[in-house]
Amino acid sequence: MNVSAPFSEAGTPHKKPEQALKGAISIRNVTKIYDPEGVNVMAVDNASMEIAGGEVCMIVGPSGCGKTTLLNAIAGFHSITSGEIRLDGELLCGPGKPKAKQGADRMVVFQHGALFPWKTLAENVAYGPIVQGALSKSLAMEKARHMLADAGLGDVGNKYPGEVSSGMARRAEIVRALINDPKVLLLDEPYRAMDALTKSIMHESLLETYDRTKVTIFFITHDLEEAIFLGDKVHIVTTRPCQLKKTVNVDIPRPRSYAVQSSEQFRVLMEEVNEAVHEEAIKAFEAGERELA
Amino acid sequence: MAQAASKSKNTRRTAPPKGFALFLYRLKKSFSTPTPYLTIAGVGLWIFVYWLLCEGLRVDRFDKIPGPVAVARDWFSPEPFQGISIFTEAYWNHIYVSCRRIAIAFAIATGVGVPLGLFMGWSKKIRDYIFPILETLRPIPILAWVPLAILMLPGFEAPVIFLATLASLFVTTLNTMLGVESIDEEYFRAAGCLGSSNWDIFKNVVVPGALPFIFTGLQISIGVAWFSLVAAEMVSGDHGLGYLIVDSYVNSVTIPMVIGMLTLGLIGWLTSILVRSLGNYLMQWHVRELALQGR
Fold first, then answer.
1. Cβ–Cβ contact B182 with A under 8 A
2. Who's near A113: CB < 8 A, 6+ residues apart?
3. Range of the domain at B276
4. Does the beta-carbon distance from A131 to B283 stay under 8 Å?
5. What is the CATH number of the domain that holds B209?
6. Does B212 touch chain A (CB under 8 A)?
7. Which of B180, B189, B193, B280 to substitute to test the interface with A, most A CBs within 10 Å?
8. A22-105+183-281, what's its fold?
9. Within an 8 Å CB–CB cutoff, is residue A34 touching chain B?
10. Which positions carry the signal peptide feature in this UniProt record (chain B) (predicted)?
């Protein structure tokens, strides 16, 4: 595993290699059938995926294909109909346990942002350790301020989310997730509503965070460049019901800079992903038309 | 000299003004907008029309109503012609009695209504128990409760307070419940992810998330409390502004009647401002967000 290597090289003996590998997700034959008003809608059909610990796994697929359903199942927001999902070998949900328990080992960063608007950024970040009883209130606030400062948000810790830019808010939300030392970071199109410039800053900050923490990242997106630039693997899923169509390995070495986006290697990968996604996009579009007609 | 003055004028303020300086700043700023002038013009126009109808032109039937001059003369006179002015003890007693009733009724209605609404919005089970009853009782006009209240409760005070409480309770409960429902599902999910217990979610998501709706509800509810209080005082009171109005009418002294009405309007407005200020104080995040949107 290439993931354990940086730690041993950096000479950090207090971190055991298996700690670096935490957060392996195994999705096996997962099916999810929604039943709104007596009509079965299959959102996910027999999807299987193996995500190694410390991997950046990008999920790309057409809108409404069931990617979020998968994320919700891992996070414990929704049940699954059959199959199983394991985190580091432990059963999250599966036979006899349709819905995973929500926990701080899997932190979600939401599409529209879910910082509590009634708490300041620092209070938001400190919230997790406080309610888990991990830290006292004052220690948690101190740690939150430190982590915000590390993320370049030291000056705005006392502001409310409504007072800062969306980029800052999103970065603070990732800090709020990381303070809990999660095994997995689940991101559902977190940069969707951002302009290209802000997005590029967010990408660099996420990569920097990843290089530091090596947390497993499960990242849903529509943006193919984003997928290749950030990911170790890009999983392309089919239109509904969601199944794994193709996995593209991105072997661009880390740390990555924005310059790689203009390289030949990047262009080839882009073509490969684009081809697979485009096929599905057409299918999804046609299916959408049929549903309406 | 002039240079120094212009220099100090151009100095950029880095720290926001506080306390009295903030008040002066806001006052100064408000005089550069049309708002205060329009308000003064509006009030002036209203009083002028009132005067024209009752005292200027003496339009038929309006001539029995005391005009602004007659009312003002009595209201601010040490020896009022018809017995009620800011110098008489009776006037302040009526105000005190009504305010005391409102304070008790509003406190009970808020103390019961807010928790009830929070739990109803949060738990479907509690809601299923209570909501149908609430929805059946709510459309009954508060005046229809008057006979029942008099039969049920002893004395003058209890029925009046009961009626005001009831009216404002419905508004508070319903608005609080809607407030909880308005909270985005993602905040609950985020709180769950972060390891919150149910009680943590209640404290940190349900209550603060519903607060903007709660305070909108409280502003309406204090208005409704005044409304039903006066109705109740008219029927079964022995003091209070509602009683003053109906008692003056019965005794054919029309000036105290109008004084009572205007006093009600002013005090109602004042209590509404109090509730709004308390809300703004508790919801700095909301105020600042709105301010950035230019509201």
1. no
2. A161, A166, A169, A170, A173, A190
3. 89-292
4. no
5. 1.10.3720.10
6. no
7. B193
8. Rossmann fold (3.40.50)
9. no
10. none
In sign, the C-alpha dihedral spanning B242, B244, B246, B249 is negative
Distance CA B161, CA B237 (A): 10
Report d(CA A41, CA A58) in Å as an integer.
25
User: Per-residue confidence of chain B (295 residues) as pLDDT tens digits?
Assistant: 444 444 445 556 667 777 788 888 888 888 888 888 999 999 999 999 999 998 888 888 888 888 899 899 889 988 888 888 888 889 999 999 999 999 999 999 999 999 999 999 998 999 999 999 999 999 999 889 988 988 999 888 899 999 999 999 999 999 999 999 999 999 999 999 898 999 999 999 999 999 999 999 999 999 999 988 888 888 777 889 999 999 998 888 889 999 999 999 999 999 999 999 999 888 888 888 887 776 6
The token pair that represents A91 in the structure block: 């059963």
ipTM of the complex: 0.83
The position carrying tokens 């990843």 is: A210
Residue indicated by tokens 């038309």: A289
| DSSP for A225-251, written as a single string | HHHHHH-SEEEEEPSSSB-EEEEEE--
